[in-house]
Amino acid sequence: MTTLKDVARASGVSVMTVSNVINGVPRVGTATRERVLAAIDDLGYEVNLTARRLRAGRSGTVALVVPRVDHPYFGELAARFTDALAPTGRHLVVEQSDASKEGELTALSQARLQQYDGVLLSAVGLQYADVDRLDADLPLVLLGEKPMPPRFDHVSLGNLDGGRLATQHLLARGARRVLMVGGTHGLTDGGMADQRTDGWRSAHRAAGLPVDDSLVLHPAAFEMGLAREAVHDAVAAGLRFDAVFAVTDQVAIGVLAGLRDVGLRVPEDVQVVGFDNLAVSEHLSPALTTVDPSNDVLVMHAVRLLERRMAGAAGDAEHVVTPTRLVERGSTR
Amino acid sequence: MTTLKDVARASGVSVMTVSNVINGVPRVGTATRERVLAAIDDLGYEVNLTARRLRAGRSGTVALVVPRVDHPYFGELAARFTDALAPTGRHLVVEQSDASKEGELTALSQARLQQYDGVLLSAVGLQYADVDRLDADLPLVLLGEKPMPPRFDHVSLGNLDGGRLATQHLLARGARRVLMVGGTHGLTDGGMADQRTDGWRSAHRAAGLPVDDSLVLHPAAFEMGLAREAVHDAVAAGLRFDAVFAVTDQVAIGVLAGLRDVGLRVPEDVQVVGFDNLAVSEHLSPALTTVDPSNDVLVMHAVRLLERRMAGAAGDAEHVVTPTRLVERGSTR
DNA sequence: CCACGATGGTGTATCGATACACCTTCGCGG
DNA sequence: CCGCGAAGGTGTATCGATACACCATCGTGG
């Protein structure tokens, strides 16, 4: 492995001069610079980022911590962040927090996160205490909906509004019994599902309709297969409904499959609304009506806030909630 | 920030003893060990991974480089690798190579990759020369189908077999004009699409049927929206076909949508087969018949080969191709 | 009763790049 | 012709952890 020293020797200057050339410090003469650049090219020298990071403190890298990237929502989010960070000259790496060895949250350890200039941390699946343990002076922006230590900047989606929007839409289209798949009964962790379910409740109240908690189905996880089964079970149990609000598009995909399995037509027999507006949703059969949570706004704010912290700003934490918007497609009338 | 020195001072021992405690070196007395651990706990000390990496060489981290994680195939792959690496005590981070600033392949630079103990590099979207530039002694396993420098271990999917399998299945089910969406005309880069298209050709020849290249549609990218439009255009142009082999499930989703748009029924009018067996595919309407490329086998081999290199093995590079398997669902008869 | 091995612990150089203070040399104004 | 500032360049300490050689103490077998 070639180091600064090798380049210095090869070009007959000191290591500092080589370092200065690499970092574009202007105090190097043109002839010298060229000699050094030639030597770098010659030896195929590349800077050791680990050493630079240790000495200079900066790494040029930002981490995005999400539960798993095989959930399309997080995959799409990661790609958005990558694009948003590219113009700033910083590089994004993705860490998955669900993949813990023996329940240890390795991805979340202070030691690991400290390697980065900044961290975008999706709060989904994390506990308040885990996050509270983190150093306050690590540039960190929280994403997602869980209640989290207020000392951190926090950007979240408009879950309450979105849940209300989705449900209102169904009610306005004539639905009277709106199944909430992936909802929660009462407050659990104050997270995404709680908030979206609250929106569902709130829309019922606003319309002067009763809130029937037996319509709230809570599968063990927000996965397509489980949602599909939940629909089978509900129908088998004789539960009557004329619409479904699925807590995520992912769940909605399972719901659409489940309804098809039991011979119910969408939107004629049952209307369906999702949440997230995944890329795949407009290509489903039928195309999925869904709540668009303005991920672009989320990303924009998160990057802005993180840049501010990385630049050393110490001010109060900012808490942002994105606007939501209903995207009407074929799964509702 | 607290360092080893602080802990040493607080517990009245040398930094080396603290280091030995942290690394579980057995030459530390029980009483001392406990005193040190107490001090660590007290001060909230966490090891500086950057310093450790610089000195000790190891980082405990493996990078997976994929084009983008918003493509479900890569998202699912990343999650699989994360799970496969967890038992080895190593940590996975995901880098995206498509996100280049001004066309620069930052994720692929030697400097960046050298930070990791090992690298799993998806060759999709990379050039031979880019990869050839990399140091041979970096533990690296190539994934994917492009022709790449043979000095690296390389695990790829059985694209040729899979393409043949898919097409054979369609022909066996009575199809006579199989549209290949996302195929290529002749050899382009020897990559995934070329190989799958070859499989399509090969199946035709094996069945004694003519190979009609006008049936090969090549959208600009393997995206749902473009595939959907490609189907519209083909139908509008009067192209006749009774089946579609989509180069990926992602493309197949677009194809299903496109066929629905123009009023063609699947599988009655047109049968469809995809490739990848994404999680979503079994929940589509109709459920998608697809080629399962044994990603678990891919992951297993890749991890095995990488471990071998990280352990210092120097032997010849191994090249593995995974077996493929057809998963029959509702999109074929 | 001494030599020697086991046990427990320490000092120092080092990984590679960079911050910072300092040193030359040269041109030019007074 | 001297002094001073600018331009170009260098030496050294340092970031934090670890490898390695070395040191001290003590128990025990010959």
Automatic annotation (TrEMBL), chains A, B:
The keyword Transcription regulation applies. Gene3D superfamilies: 3.40.50.2300, lambda repressor-like DNA-binding domains. It comes from Cellulomonas chitinilytica. It holds the Pfam family LacI. The keyword DNA-binding applies. Residues 2-56 form the HTH lacI-type domain. The lineage of its organism: Bacteria, Bacillati, Actinomycetota, Actinomycetes, Micrococcales. Keywords: DNA-binding, Transcription, Transcription regulation. This is LacI family transcriptional regulator.
